Amino acid sequence: MTEPTTHRTEVVVVGGGQAGLATSWHLVRDGVDHVVLEAHTLGHEWADTRWDNFTLVTPNWHCRLPGYEYDGPDPDGFMTRDEVVAWLAGYAPTFGPPVREHTRVTSLTERAEGGFRVEATGPDGPEVWEAGSVVVATGGYHVPIVPSWAPALDPSITQLHSADYRNAAQLPEGGVLVVGSGQSGAQIAEDLHLEGRTVHLALGDAPRVARFHRGRDCMTWLAEMGLYDTGVAQYPGGLAAREKTNHYVTGRDGGRDIDLRAFAAEGMRLYGMLEGGAGTELTFLPTLTAALDGADDVYRSICRDIDRYIDAQGIEAPPAAPYTAVWEPDTDPTSLDLAAAGISTVVWAIGYRPDYRWVGAGVFDGTGRPTHSRGVTALPGLYFLGLPWLHTWGSGRFLGIAADAEHVTGVITGRKGGARTEPAADLARRRSPGEIASDVALAG
């Protein structure tokens, strides 16, 4: 057996996505010796796990990393998957991070003499890295979730997770059942619907949000209101916010609402939460009406919050256009025969679970998620970045990565002050009248 090559460095960063690269930018700036270990290639998740017609759901101006931001012609637009891949690919060359691609970390353990031992497999064989600090920047979406009873479905039914969905043409002919109405599920259902496929959608409890309200993108309003800068502990329910599903909306074709009621009026079949199944028979909970009403309540609540902000600040904005439901279910269906409905494919869009089994440290809760305060664990020298709601709603997104990375690297180096990240609220306010007028036209 080949003996591993041993290396020593101050910091090991595990993961070369936006979180890992943002961490490296700060460490390079501060002259800290470190390495970024990436199992595949930099930013591969964007190219490998998004479907062909994927677009960002946040405006392009949200795309900001330390020392690097979107500077294209459409700050209020929504980059496609390929545009995001190209934009992110331009980041590393601006500061030269010490990256080792195709190097998969297999083990992280504490060293008796202090610090950590990181074992990995690289292009040339096994490697060992000894470091005083480790930043785990692999995100929180590792293992696609599929129900334990999924193998009991008829083998003639094609099953795939949303991570493996690319386009309608890859699926066999026939109807498609999409399970899950979060961002991925709702957008994949939209993609299939626009391609003319017969779509069935099983809803969870995901809320929705208007794309535009009173002349501006809702996410721009929310950023200006400070929502993306508010720490998770300050939200109602506190840390429970980390378990909430993101609102569904789309950036496709310049951005618009995803209105499942409108899709239903056009022929999409909607159901409540999927309960179970075997063979070709599925059962659902009678939650469809409540799911639609709940999503609409959140939609209206966000619009009212924006209205109050507009009034309080004395902002001139176009009048609100209240949402009116265009479709109501006659009943909440509780069963479906896949064969009788002509459904050939099930797309599971019910999320992921974390997998940190390679981390040999007692910093996890009963669900396998790391316990931390803004990425800093109780074990000195071990940190996490890139997690949803790590600190704010913007954490895990391009908009919040810079501040989180700066905080964690500041703890590592003991640095006080330094380059400060501009709050999202200030970024949102730095918009010209022309840009706001552009929003009005888009919303109109």
TrEMBL record:
InterPro entries: Auxin_biosynth/cation_transpt, CHP04046_FMN-dependent, FAD/NAD-bd_sf
Keywords: Oxidoreductase
Chain coiled-coil ranges: none
Pfam families xrefs: Pyr_redox_3
Protein's recorded name: FAD-dependent oxidoreductase
Species the sequence originates in: Nocardioides aromaticivorans
